[in-house]
Specification:
homodimer, alpha+beta, Arc Repressor Mutant, subunit A, 2 domains, 9 strands, about 20% strand
């Protein structure tokens, strides 16, 4: 299969509490996926401000800054999933109308029923894969150019090893500076930033499985525990050891 | 992910022609999956006769004999998929009511919309994976006992190599005769029959991708082209070279 979704790190169906808001100064490193069923929110990024409306599916960027807030008198109600869309890259926010009786409507209804009843994560993952394939076939999502895709897959497979920008640029026979420029154009961030985010995301998923911090760091490709903890704190605003308790079902 | 569906070899949404019937003297080697939307059919196997009804999902066994026919005045209308449920094994026919507004109803509606509109095979495959996970979580399908599962996965990975029943029984440290009995109890057929069917199924999928006969035979683990052709003809009642044209969208 060509596409596969990254692991889901959070999901649910909620009516957001009054004080709900999202502030991502550098992008969260995963994509938020919302199916808004009631209320709404204001989304703001470098491109401007946009009103999020019920009856639409939204995809929010992994690697760029944005903010969201809602009107507490008409709070955001949505089905949400946090997951990496690997190897697909989403630059800006995407909005899709969910037409009643069409594929997307049925698929989201199946997801909602699943979350409300059995809440099986492997099953939700397989439906998310279906959603991502559909989005990619309907040109909402696009694969990066082949050379960058090759590098992203290489990082996925070899993230535990020592990887340098030189190694990665040699993979596709490009000059280092040209490689960095192209990588940034396709993903929005530098190879170094990408690798760090990828490893931190892997570590966060391991921590949620109650793997000890030292082991999670090692398995994600961090050789130095101190630099891991620092990078983790910078990204998640919490110590790695406290992360499993911090995981909350909020959009 | 724990489960994955085997490749889909045929699928569609049809109103069956008057002369439609199914005769499987030894089981087809894949599972038929029907969501009946109109008309009906009579199903017959060793256990007896059963009336197939609209509003139900049916799964038919891979490895045991059965027959189906319908009343031409009230012909069978259904969404159907032919696929292996690997590594899950289905002994008898299974019938499930499709309750309106529940998960199965939404998932089948998404499949139907997909088949009618884009007809994307990777997408249908991901939805089938979701269906199979759901069926396994709802105890309609069960995994074989761990030792047999290990052998089935070994066959999947190594089907191109020479595999003997002795090799397979040694994998799980069982006596050969005990192994054969256990294998048969879990899958309905002997290890030798299973391996042959698995290889023929692989070959048929390669042929559908327009891989030449010699190459398809070799890649599926057949060392002798003559015995491959003979086994293929016995199973599919057609020469391997003519199989790609023979592939028809019939349930």
């Amino acid at each position: 299969m060509l596409f596969d979704s990254g692991p889901i790190s959070s999901h649910g169906i909620v009516r957001c509490p009054e004080d709900w808001q999202v502030t991502e100064p550098h992008g969260p490193g995963y994509s938020r996926i919302y199916h808004i069923t009631g209320g709404g929110a204001i989304y703001r990024d470098a491109a401007g401000t946009h009103q999020l409306k019920p009856g639409h599916l939204y995809l929010f960027p992994e690697n760029s800054a944005y903010q969201m807030r809602h009107n507490p008198a008409d709070p955001l109600c949505c089905l949400y999933i946090h997951a990496s869309l690997f190897p697909l890259v989403l630059h800006g926010m995407q909005e899709l109308p969910v037409e009643p009786g069409h594929f997307l409507d049925h698929l989201l209804a199946a997801m909602a029923d699943l979350i409300r009843s059995s809440d099986s994560l492997p099953l939700l993952q397989s439906l998310l894969t279906a959603l991502i394939i559909w989005l990619s076939e309907n040109i909402v999502l696009q694969q990066p150019r082949p050379e960058i895709l090759q590098v992203l897959k290489y990082i996925q497979t070899n993230s535990r090893d020592t990887l340098t920008v030189s190694t990665l640029s040699q993979l596709v026979c490009w000059q280092k500076q040209y490689f960095i420029r192209q990588f940034r154009r396709e993903t929005g961030i530098t190879p170094h930033q990408y690798l760090l985010r990828y490893r931190l995301h892997q570590a966060s998923l391991l921590l949620l499985q109650n793997i000890p911090v030292t082991e999670a760091a090692r398995q994600s490709g961090f050789t130095d525990l101190k630099s891991f903890s620092k990078a983790f704190r910078t990204k998640y605003q919490i110590a790695p050891s406290r992360y499993p308790n911090y995981y909350r079902n909020i959009p």
